[in-house]
Amino acid sequence: MIRLSLLQFRGQAVVALAALATVAVVLAVTGIQVSHLYAASGLASCPSAAGCPALASALLAKLRGDAAFGVVYWAGIFALYAVPAILGMFWGAPLIARELEAGTCRLAWTQSVSRTRWLAVKLGLVGLASVAVAGLLSLLVAWWVRQVDPLDPFGMNRLQPAMFGARGIAPIGYAAFAFAVGVTAGMLIRNTVAAIAATPVVIGAIEGAMIAWVRPRLIPPVHVTMPLSLATVQDVGTNAGAPASDNLSVSAWVTEPGGWVYSTRVLGASGHTSLGPQPRACASGSWQSCLDALGRLHLQETVTYQPASRYWPLQWAETSVLLALALLLAGFCFFWVRRLSG
Amino acid sequence: MIEFQLDQASGVATYLQLVQQVHQALRMGMLEPGDQLPTAQQVVAKLAINPNTVLKAYRELEREGLVRARPGLGTFVTRVPSGADPVAQARYLATMTDWLRSARSAGLGPDDIEAIYRTAFRNCFAEGVA
Amino acid sequence: MKGVIETAALGRRYGRTWALRDCTLTLPEGRVIGLVGPNGAGKTTLLHMAVGLLAPTAGTITVLGQHPAAGPAQLGRIGFVAQDTPAYARMSVANHLRLGAWLNPGWDEALARHRIGQLGLDPRQRAGSLSGGERAQLALTLALAKRPELLVLDEPVASLDPLARRDFLRGLMEAVAEHGMSVVLSSHLVADLERVCDYLVVLVASLVRVAGEVSALLASHHRLAGPRRDPDTLPAAVEIIEESHTDKQSTLLVRTGEPIQDPSWTVKPVSLEDLVLAYMSRARDEQVRGPRLRVVS
Q1: Does the beta-carbon distance from A103 to C51 stay under 8 Å?
Q2: What CA–CA distance (Å, rounded) separates A98 from A192?
Q3: Beta bridge partners of C18
Q4: Which among A90, A77, A98 is positioned nearest to A140, based on CA atoms?
Q5: Is the residue at A305 inside a domain?
Q6: Secondary-structure percent of chain B, ordered helix, strand, coil, rounded to 5
Q7: Which residue from B minimizes the CA distance to C178?
Q8: How many B-C residue pairs are in contact by the CB < 8 A criterion?
Q9: Do B44 and C31 make contact, defined as CB atoms within 8 angstroms?
Q10: What is the pLDDT of residues A152-172, one digit of tens each?
Q11: What is the count of structural domains for chain A?
Q12: What range does the domain containing B121 cover?
């Protein structure tokens, strides 16, 4: 059965290897250039990126000025999100659907091999291949960005939602999950084209839910309350509909280097949510005088965030959830394949 | 070696057709005692019929005493059917000629005589029917 | 008597429609068994249940003494050729043989190679570019090289031209002559079955209408012709399958174990094709009119 699955998978494997090889070559060539630029910038002798801000911003300016850098950087992120979905659509969905549609399952299930073993080998082989492709791609991109990522080249760090799924081992979890969704869709819909169409919809919905709802709760975030730092104030205004004695609204944003800030809330001096009336300087006056007025109010701010140190624990947590979902779907597939009629 | 034909439209069972063809071949001298009949596999390869049918025909011939199956070697002719006795055939020919003459003088035409003959023939030789 | 396939009140329902109902059969071993009936009669349903592709919703079925698809060992004793002989379109003939070898412990590689050579198939040709007849022969080779005790074929020749049909049946009969396996073969073409089957099951509109050895069926069914009369004048043991009357003559197709004593009836044999057609048209009439009841004492 293993040899048969390898035989059936041959064509797809060749395509994947060719694509990976191309990507590897592109990344190798451009990655060496990035390394040269990094070496030339002198940042290598700095103990940490925060220590030499001038050198860092000089390098980043140079990189951002290079169009090819931007293209490859964003392409890498896009690929790491797209590839799991593509694998789910084109390796997962047709895996069983094609056999059901063409009737070849009537040939396969009447050989001397049980349906369970047949499914197990197919799922195992192609699933492992999907995970390997995603893992390899993530490894290649991680090598490419190893020096540049800590500098937050486009204002995002790897813990933040946009990039988190395209770094580390998360793509492996997404590949396994997307593959499992594809196979399940194919098995339930029994039509290859319809399953290919349905798979990204399901993947998108679940992953959206994952990013918006599950990930923030995987590890409870840190809450820190500290005196309001005027440098973090973004906007000062009034709450519409609130009484004049209590209508001050201040929004602030704290940045945590390498961390993921959920929210920043400005509180009153004693920790209350009501901030009191808006100072006259803010209603009609310069920005600086408004800030000075705020400073006299001794406001506080509460930051809810994940510190940078939480990166790997969150990666493991999210990947585990995705792998668990994938295994659940796989378990369902084993149950369902025995109920299918040829 | 004898080669069998099959006439699916004749209404005669396949195994009987094979038996009759062996009888015919024996009568006409195409098969002689000691000759081997085709194996079931050879017959099947030519006619695409059920091999059990061939075996049934050969068992019938063996029951009639005309052939003998030798395990591992094949089926061989042992003797010629007794119905090929020329004296008996001449006697029946004479009886038949007399009957035909009397039918003709009674006014029966060739088609009437043919119809009577075919009905009698069918009733006599149709398989298993009262 | 142990049969190669035994069913007891077997049935399969889809929603509210019964594809097969109340099927009780004991198919003898060592025979070529024909399953004949019009399209949609339930032949594929019955065969799929026999090879474990479909689960029954009523009754039981045992194949070679075991549950269908009881395990890899039992699957190895049964060879199956599905309707339209599905094959992997982009896989070559040689790779199909490798599939057979890898998935079946009882695989006879020499037999497979010999047969493919005899058939003149190019091992490197993809199954998708084979003609219908060639694909059917490939499917038969895959089933035969497993060295099964039972071969099940679902309308294997339905979409083949007459020459390909004859070649397929010839190959099948040669294999039976050589290996002595039991065969269950379904078709809606009776003429083919008459050549190769020695046991027949007639299935119409999800019910088994008649089943038995071909020689016994032919011996017990007769065509009666005689002057116009009410068929109820026949003894109760005579079952009327089909009847037609003109103003002067009555013609009946009957089933009976005893000889017809009444000399006013002309008794003639019935061909297998006419026998099957009579059962099929009776079944269709029953569907339209309801069953015709007759008191049998």
Answers
A1: no
A2: 6
A3: C13
A4: A77
A5: no
A6: 60, 10, 35
A7: B41
A8: 62
A9: no
A10: 888 888 888 888 999 999 999
A11: 2
A12: 85-125
Assess whether C57 and C163 both reside in one domain.
yes
Among candidate residues A258, A30, A56, the one with its CA nearest the CA of residue A144: A30
Look up residue B12 and give its DSSP letter. S
Cβ-Cβ contacts under 8 Å for C34 (sequence gap 6 or more):
C185, C186, C187, C193, C196, C197, C199, C200, C201
Nearest 5°: the CA angle C140, C141, C144 is 85
CA distance C260 to C253: 12
Which residues does residue B37 pair with via DSSP β-bridges, in sequence order?
B75
Query: Which of B78-87, B109-118, C201-210, C245-254 is least confident?
Result: B78-87
Tell me if chain A has a CB within 8 Å of the CB of C202. no
A184 with A251, same domain: the answer is: no
pLDDT tens, position by position, A75-100: 999 999 999 999 999 999 999 999 99
Instruction: Decide: helix, strand or coil at residue A114.
Output: coil
The alpha carbon of residue C120 is apart from the nearest alpha carbon of chain A, in Å, by 23
Say yes or no for a CB contact (<8 Å) between B50 and C32. yes
Residue B2 lies in a domain: no
**Predicted confidence (pLDDT) per residue in A252-270, tens digit:** 888 888 889 898 888 888 7
Do B78 and B89 lie in a common domain? no
CATH number at residue C97: 3.40.50.300
Same domain flag for C114 and C53: yes
Q: Which residues of C touch B129 (CB under 8 A)?
A: 222, 259, 267-269
Cross-chain Cβ contact C98/A110 below 8 Å: no
- Give the structural domain span for A272: 229-298
